[in-house]
Amino acid sequence: MTTTTTVRIASLVFGGFIAASMLSTPVFAVGGGGGGSDASTPVCKKGQIYDKKSKRCVKQSSANVPDEDRTDYAYALAKAARYQEALDMLDTVKDQNNAEVLNYRGYATRKLGRTDEGITYYLQSVKLDPNYAQVREYLGEAYVVKGRMDLAKEQLGIIKTICGTECEPYEDLNAAILNPSKL
């Protein structure tokens, strides 16, 4: 066997090992959109949830996973465009009257095309926490989708008072107002 053949075989074996190990590892959701969730929360296989305490994917029905982890995981699913799974995960949260839960429910619902329903969740979230910049961003984006630039700009102004013009919710909503076709 030549040295070149040996190197090629080693490369194929090593590449296969890497690919196999990636299939058993949780996939990490991309960040963006600001907010309280850790943007690096992994997205597990369907029927599983990432447990921060054990740092691994566990069965979704596990009673030991706290509401905060379930909420964060639902957001990670939504950011991975798994909107219905995100809503299903949010259904498992015990405290449904929570600003983040309502915000993420609004986000997933809006992304499923049910913008008016999403707005109702955002407004409930705003009532619970008027200074929650991310819900203001998503509410503003929903108004952009509805063609209500006046209401979107109103939310942008509120975000400016909460965190200024350098924060991600302000920057993202401003970008959506300037270029609605990106939503």
Flag low-confidence runs.
2-38
Count of structural domains: 1
CATH architecture: Alpha Horseshoe
Q: Looking at the chains present, what oligomeric state does this protein adopt? A: single chain
| Shape verdict | elongated
**SS field, number of helical segments:** 8
Compact description:
The chain is mainly α and 183 residues long.
Report on the structure:
With 183 residues, the protein is mainly alpha-helical. A hairpin with a 4-residue loop joins strand 3 (48-51) and strand 4. The longest helix has 21 residues, at 3-23. It starts with a helix and ends in a 5-residue tail after the last helix. It contains 8 helices and 4 strands; from the N terminus they run H-E-E-E-E-H-H-H-H-H-H-H. Helix 3 packs antiparallel against helix 4, helix 6 runs parallel beside helix 8 and helix 7 (149-163) runs antiparallel to helix 8. The strands form 2 sheets. Strands 1-2 form a two-stranded antiparallel ribbon. It has a single domain, classed as Tetratricopeptide repeat domain (Serine Threonine Protein Phosphatase 5, Tetratricopeptide repeat). It is elongated.
Could you outline the blueprint of secondary structure elements for this entry?
Blueprint: H1 3-23, E1 27-28, E2 42-43, E3 48-51, E4 56-59, H2 67-79, H3 83-90, H4 99-111, H5 115-128, H6 133-145, H7 149-163, H8 168-178
Antiparallel strand pairs: 1-2, 3-4
